[in-house]
Amino acid sequence: MASDKSLNVTVPKEDLDRFDKEAEKMGFNSRAAYLRAMINAGRREFGLDPQGDGAEDGTLQDFIDERILDAVNAADGARSGEVIEEVTGEIEDLVRESIEQLNETGTIEYSVNDDGLIVAKRDN
């Protein structure tokens, strides 16, 4: 976008390496996209609108749009089937990781009776 501005921040090399590893682990194609997501998550944590006054909050559609553009740009053009496979594969991996994490923390569990995942019952 023509109105986009660059923000230059100096951080230790160890932080950049950590950001890159975290971005890759979380499926981001760039450090910049990862840092934008982390800044917005922090803004939400402080009760702020991550996109600023009057702007829409990021949606799943925005996330998918960004992933499509990243995939097409990385390949310098791509067939639609290849892009769909790349984006859905990434989302499928993220869903699997989330299920594993929620299961490990006891938030969800497998129910033989329901033949699937359920929210774990908590004692109050």
UniProtKB/TrEMBL annotation:
Q: Can you give the residue ranges of the Ribbon-helix-helix protein CopG domain?
A: 5-40
InterPro entries the UniProt entry points to:
CopG (IPR002145), DUF5805 (IPR043828)
Protein name per the record:
DUF5805 domain-containing protein
List, alphabetically, the Pfam families matched.
DUF5805 (PF19121), RHH_1 (PF01402)
Q: What is the lineage of its organism?
A: Archaea, Methanobacteriati, Methanobacteriota, Stenosarchaea group, Halobacteria
Write down the superkingdom of origin.
Archaea
The cross-references to CDD domains, in alphabetical order and at most eight, read:
RHH_NikR_HicB-like (cd22231)
